[in-house]
Design brief:
171 residues, mainly alpha, Diphtheria Toxin Repressor, domain 2, 2 domains
């Protein structure tokens, strides 16, 4: 029963490798970014040392050491900060997916503009209809997706500028 709670050796090794990889990312940050992450003093010093090491084997050992030091740190705030700098925060990803779903719905369904207006009141429906029409024509003609991208930008602005009205399906 006690063994069920303890992670397997493979899981522990995977976690250690993930921490070491995270430590490598810390070594690759610029000084301002590194300063923005609250690291313990010994880990901060180890990262700074790793930047100065040029010999392959010595650098590998230093990165392993950083991985060991990372075990004493909660890695999630560091991961979240790196994701934000990478532009891949979970909120941003969800927002982009929501915009893409709206775009596809608008292109496939003529009645979707009404649903969008209901969810985000006060939008310019005439411009939106023109963008949808142009994107459909563009897609059917096999032209480059200029209007398709413009529709995405318009939807991004609509969703960013207005607070959505909650509806039954949680959209």
């Amino acid at each position: 029963m006690h063994d069920e709670e303890k992670p397997s050796k493979t899981e522990r090794k995977r976690a250690m490798h993930e921490l070491q990889t995270l430590g490598e990312r810390l070594v690759g940050l610029n000084p301002e970014q590194l300063a923005a992450i609250a690291l313990p003093e010994d880990l901060q010093y180890a990262v700074e040392q790793a930047r100065r090491i040029t010999k392959h084997e010595a650098r590998r050992r230093q990165l392993q050491y950083i991985g060991r030091l990372m075990r004493a740190v909660d890695p999630e705030p560091i991961r979240e900060k790196l994701r934000a700098w990478d532009g891949v925060s979970t909120e941003e990803t969800a927002r982009v997916h929501r915009i893409e779903r709206w775009r596809e719905t608008l292109l496939e369904n003529d009645g979707a503009i009404g649903a969008l207006v209901h969810a985000h009141p006060g939008i310019d429906t005439q411009r939106l209809r023109a963008l949808v029409r142009n994107a459909r024509e563009e897609r059917n003609a096999g032209r480059p997706p200029r209007a398709y991208r413009e529709l995405f930008r318009a939807l991004r602005d609509i969703i960013a500028d207005s607070q959505p009205v909650p509806d039954d399906d949680g959209e």
